[in-house]
Amino acid sequence: MSAIVQLQDIHKVYDSGEVAVHAVRGVSLTIGRGEFLAIMGASGSGKSTLMNLIGCLDRPTKGVYRLDDIDVAGLGRDELADLRNHKLGFVFQGFNLLSRTTALENVELPMLYGRHHVGARTMRERALHSLETVGLGNRADHFPSQLSGGQQQRVAIARALVNEPRLLLADEPTGNLDSKTSVEVMGVFQQLNEAGITILMVTHELDIAHYCKRNIVMRDGRVVSDTPVTQRLDARVEMKRLLTAEAEHQLTEQS
Q: Of 4, 51, 52, 226, which is least packed with CB atoms within 10 Å of its CB?
């Protein structure tokens, strides 16, 4: 399995004035194409900083980072922006949708910011395809206020997919969702991964991490464990269990 991400002895130090903050300390990590892994850790463990470094939203203080065989350290600001737009897709805890634009228009946004011109018809076709991929093709003309939280997050996932990224980065994507909707969204991620998309997810929820294939735990800026998930949860099975339990509860209340 070829690597999409290669980190070698990555450090990130923030100079806050009197004290230097070592957010990431000597992390070496390889992510193969088609993997689905979770980065876990307590607040201040360095997991979000590592996500930002991998997402080219920040630069390491020291170390080598290669993304899809490209040495990121030598890239200028415009080259980094182009790399983020075409090789990376981002999904955040907050859905970050524009309230006055439709689901389709929200998904089209990354194509508007790219350096390569995309015609209006092509944009619409690609955006609609992304929405269909996450099961929202019939909600394309709906505004965010007309969508549930889970549907809004799926629009955000579709937006992250529209430029066909090599790596999908998800930062606490279920943090604003209830347990049932979280399972639904994890089902979308599992389906995308089964289709060959590489996914890196930051989460503090152990049950969410068990939907992934590999778990990395950080503490004090270091990776302290890196293990495959041996008892992986299947979102389709879990959703059936939740629906059955819900139906049984309703029957009990009616009786």
A: 226
Q: In the CATH hierarchy, which fold is given to the domain comprising 3-254?
A: Rossmann fold (3.40.50)
- Report if pTM > 0.85: yes
Model pLDDT for residues 25-43, shown as the tens digit of each residue: 999 999 999 999 999 999 8
CA angle at 92 for the pair 165 and 43, rounded to the nearest 5°: 120
CA 249 to each of CA 116, 235, 252: distance values in angstroms, whole numbers, following the listed order = 53, 21, 5
Residue spans of the domains in the chain: they are 3-254
Q: How many CB atoms lie within 10 A of CB 43?
A: 7
pLDDT for 156 beyond 90: yes
254 Cβ neighbours under 8 A, 6+ residues apart: none
pLDDT tens-digit map of 14-26? 987 778 899 999 9
Q: How many Cβ atoms sit within 10 Å of the Cβ of residue 141? A: 10
**Cβ burial 69-84 (10 Å sphere, 16+ → b, else e):** eeebeebeeeeeebbb
